[in-house]
Amino acid sequence: MAESESLSIISLIINASLLVQLVMLLLFMASVVSWMMILQRGHYQRQAKNSFHQFEKKFWSGGDLGQLYRDGNQRASTHPIDGVENIFREGFKEFSRQRQQGRSDPDVVMEGIQRAMRVALAREEEKLEANLPFLASVASVSPYIGLFGTVWGIMNSFRGLANVHQATLATVAPGISEALVATAMGLFAAIPAVLAYNRYSANAESLVNNYETFAEEFTAYLHRQVHSDSGSR
């Protein structure tokens, strides 16, 4: 029974008009690409969340931040560093650079550190939200594309009735069924995309809030360090 139903759906797609087939192909491709992005975004955001918790434990363990930065340098030679550790590294690198240059004004030093971490935070936010606009587009546009294919198919079905002396349900049913497949494919592409977009947008916002909180705490730590260094001179 299931095999005959699948074969009938395939036959409806094959027998559909060229424009409706193009609509179906477009929706199928959009669905495949969106599923690839859904899986990729899920994997990336899970990694980012785990990396955040792991790095936060290291940071607040009371160890030497200079050693933590040097350990990151060793790992950066083999693979890029993302997430909250990248924000830490940019801030600490600017802090070290300012100290090496002998800057004595704490406000100037902190302004450079905050600017470096803001740039790093913006880059990490872009990484977390990558591909989400495409998912939003698929979620919003796919039903209308499918509806266009359906309307076009139904128009062809009723136009074909002009050559039929007696119109029956059996006459128009195949054409309408072919057209409705386009709507079904539009919903099939849109529903996973909108669910994934809502979930990953919320996850990205939560992680960005965590990054911002860490950046503020790290800024406060460096602020005390900078004023301590300037007071000892």
UniProtKB/TrEMBL annotation:
<keyword id="KW-1003">Cell membrane</keyword>
<protein>
    <recommendedName>
        <fullName>Tol-Pal system protein TolQ</fullName>
    </recommendedName>
</protein>
<dbReference type="InterPro" id="IPR050790">
    <property type="entry name" value="ExbB/TolQ_transport"/>
</dbReference>
<dbReference type="GO" id="GO:0017038">
    <property type="term" value="P:protein import"/>
</dbReference>
<comment type="function">
    <text>Part of the Tol-Pal system, which plays a role in outer membrane invagination during cell division and is important for maintaining outer membrane integrity.</text>
</comment>
<comment type="subunit">
    <text>The Tol-Pal system is composed of five core proteins: the inner membrane proteins TolA, TolQ and TolR, the periplasmic protein TolB and the outer membrane protein Pal. They form a network linking the inner and outer membranes and the peptidoglycan layer.</text>
</comment>
<keyword id="KW-0812">Transmembrane</keyword>
<feature type="transmembrane region" description="Helical">
    <location>
        <begin position="132"/>
        <end position="155"/>
    </location>
</feature>
<keyword id="KW-0132">Cell division</keyword>
<dbReference type="InterPro" id="IPR014163">
    <property type="entry name" value="Tol-Pal_TolQ"/>
</dbReference>
<comment type="similarity">
    <text>Belongs to the ExbB/TolQ family.</text>
</comment>
<feature type="transmembrane region" description="Helical">
    <location>
        <begin position="12"/>
        <end position="39"/>
    </location>
</feature>
<feature type="domain" description="MotA/TolQ/ExbB proton channel">
    <location>
        <begin position="85"/>
        <end position="212"/>
    </location>
</feature>
<keyword id="KW-0131">Cell cycle</keyword>
<dbReference type="GO" id="GO:0043213">
    <property type="term" value="P:bacteriocin transport"/>
</dbReference>
<feature type="transmembrane region" description="Helical">
    <location>
        <begin position="175"/>
        <end position="197"/>
    </location>
</feature>
<dbReference type="Pfam" id="PF01618">
    <property type="entry name" value="MotA_ExbB"/>
</dbReference>
<keyword id="KW-0472">Membrane</keyword>
<keyword id="KW-0997">Cell inner membrane</keyword>
<dbReference type="InterPro" id="IPR002898">
    <property type="entry name" value="MotA_ExbB_proton_chnl"/>
</dbReference>
<dbReference type="GO" id="GO:0005886">
    <property type="term" value="C:plasma membrane"/>
</dbReference>
<keyword id="KW-1133">Transmembrane helix</keyword>
<dbReference type="GO" id="GO:0051301">
    <property type="term" value="P:cell division"/>
</dbReference>
